[in-house]
Each structure stands twice: as structure tokens, then as C-alpha cells.
Amino acid sequence: METFREDDELFKEDQETKGNKTSKIWKFLNSKDMQISRNRWRIGTLFIITTVLCVLLIIYYRTSSSKKIAKTQEDACVSSPFLNGGTCITAGCSYYCRCPESYSGYQCEGHSILASTDLPGNTHAQIATIVHNAPEDNLLIGSCSRIDIAAVYQSSPIILTSMTSFSTEKTPCSLDPCLHNGTCTVVKSSFKCACVDGYNGSKCEETPCSLDPCVHNGTCTVLGNSFNCACVDGYNGTKCEVQTSCPLGWTMHEHNCYYFSSRENNWNDAKRACKRQNSMLAEATSLSKIRFLKTNAKQYLKEKDTAFWLGGSDLAYEGVWVWTTSGRKVSFTDWHTRTIHEPNNWNGKEHCLELNNFLDYEWNDDNCLKRNKYICEKQYV
């Protein structure tokens, strides 16, 4: 209630005498002041009435909403919507079905192998929704607001792949049981795998190498829908089934045969001598071959012997060493550099490659007209 002071200039002081009593009173200065005072009282009264009405409306709507939600929860399971012994459990404005073992589906209507979810009790479960008087795209349930699926079970959230279908159903093919690009097909409560060519087994687990097709200690490698066998020395063929051998007087190494001559020839004659035996001057194209040739040269060279010719030369371009029969560039080398830095093209006439006895059986460039022993190379017979 408003109070007024004298300095408000709306009232004036006056005295009123009734009988023998005199009292002090306030009077409006004029009618305009009286109207202002009345308006103030009206505004204050209207504010109080409005506030009371708002409070009453809030209480009413909250009570009404709670009743509707409670009824929605009651209605969710009243019709017993689930089959095969499924249990209907309300969850806020939704419900979910706890299906017995080996059953799944919207109403537990089908057989399936289900992965466990994070519902309490580690049960097989599926979430369904009840939509009342609302378009599906709004995802409204009864009087509830937009669904927050993560809050359906705050203590155990469920990750759903579709807001409308809530598809958590698993099938026998859900875990991709078919290996190696096999195609899975559901067959009743089980599955069947259609395997690509070369693979077998109920889950296509058998590869082209599963049956160990490579014999004689060959190593099998899956190659697309087939296989490849890496054979040990002395065997070849698609399954290493063919036992190979080198001609008499030849030594086997990595699918090749090598001949260490006892005669001496210049480099060109040595090439021709190897060709007559359907072979070529040896080409040391790997570190393994370099070690093999060096080890065996020590056995065949006598103290007076100088070297063995190999098939390398820089006759075409000085300093560019190639294996002359295959035309491949020399990539692995074993040049002697400890006492003499080879190759050095001494006197400009050293263009052929030799394995030198006096240089630790390492490589040296020498005059192609010099007479040396030689090493021939060819594949298995």
C-alpha cells in the first residue's frame, strides 16, 4: 500500500472538529491529484491479481502433464505387445522388450543370435516407442518432449542406430562370420557362407595354403585365390614336386647351377665357352650370390691361380658396369678397396670383371685379354 508524505504536494493539512474533538486530516489539493492516486491503487491491485493467476496456471499445467506421462507409461505395456515370453518394461515415455535367449525383434517375434547390450543384467533387449498423436518425424511421444535416447537409461545408456526403428536387432550374420570376403546368408537361426574361389570351410577359413600344397619343405604364399610355392634348393614345380639336379661337375645354389672351370681363357673366349654349355658367365646379382661365388672360388683356385672371370664389363661406357648377358646394371658390388681402390682402369685398358685371388677374392677390373679361369651359370636341368 502506498504512503504519502507532505512533500508529495498531493495533499494539504487540515483540521476537522467533531463534537469536542479536533483531529488532523489530509485533503487533496485538487481533483486531478485525487485521480492520480486512484490510478496508482488500481495498477497495484491488477499486478497482485495477475501474479496469483500465473502461479495457479503453472501449478495446473504441471499437475496435468505429470498425469499424462504417468498414463502414457501405464498404456505402454497394458496390451502385452511382446511374444515368446518377452517382458515389457516401461522406460520414461518409451518401453523396451526384454526377450528370452535366442529371440529378438520388435516384439520378440523372431529367432536370432543377439549380442548383449548394456541394459541392466546384461540382457538381450530392444527399444520400441509409442507414438501418440504426433508425426513420426517430430519423434514426440504422448505429452513428452523430443526423445533423448541417451537419457532413457541414465545408468546404462543404449546406443541406437535409428531413432524411428531403434534397430539393435542382431542376426547370425551381424558379426561377419565369413572370412576372406565370403558372403553371409541367414538360414533360419544359423548362417551359410558363400566363399570366393580358392577358399573353403563353413566360415571360408580354409585358404589355398591350408592343406600345405607345397611339398619338400616348400613355403606356400596365398596369391589371390591361388597359391605360390617357394621351393628349397633342388626342387621346383608349382608344388615343389619336381626334384632337380645340376649336371656332373656343377654346383647348385638358389635354383641355379655353377661351373668353376679348370681351364683358362681370355674374357671373350670364356663367354663363348659358357655359351657352348648353354650357360653364361656368372652374374652376381645379389649379396647371396656374391658370398657363394667367393666361398667356392677359394676351394677351386690354387695358389698360383690369379682369378675367375665374371660376366661384368664397362666396355660400352667407361665406369658404367653391366652384366653383359642379361644387360642388367651392376647394383650389388664387392670391389676391393683395402689395399688398392678398385675399379681403377689401370693404363686405360681394364674393362672386364674378375674375382681376384690376391685381393681377398674381391672384385677387380682387369685387361679383357688376360687369361683367367671362369665361372659359368645356368638354371636347373
From TrEMBL:
Residue span(s) of domain C-type lectin: 253-377
One biological process term in Gene Ontology: Notch signaling pathway
Residue intervals of the EGF-like domain: 73-109, 169-205, 206-241
PROSITE patterns xref list: C_TYPE_LECTIN_1 (PS00615), C_TYPE_LECTIN_2 (PS50041), EGF_1 (PS00022), EGF_2 (PS01186), EGF_3 (PS50026)
Protein's UniProt name: NCAN
Pfam families to which the protein is assigned, alphabetical: EGF, hEGF, Lectin_C
Entry superkingdom: Eukaryota
SMART domains linked: CLECT (SM00034), EGF (SM00181), EGF_CA (SM00179)
Keywords of the record: Disulfide bond, EGF-like domain, Membrane, Repeat, Transmembrane, Transmembrane helix
Membrane-spanning residues: 41-61
Annotated disulfide bonds: 99-108, 195-204, 231-240
Alphabetized GO MF terms: calcium ion binding; Notch binding
InterPro entries per the UniProt record, alphabetical: C-type_lectin-like, C-type_lectin-like/link_sf, C-type_lectin_CS, CTDL_fold, EGF, EGF-like_Ca-bd_dom, EGF-like_CS
Organism: Mytilus coruscus (Sea mussel)
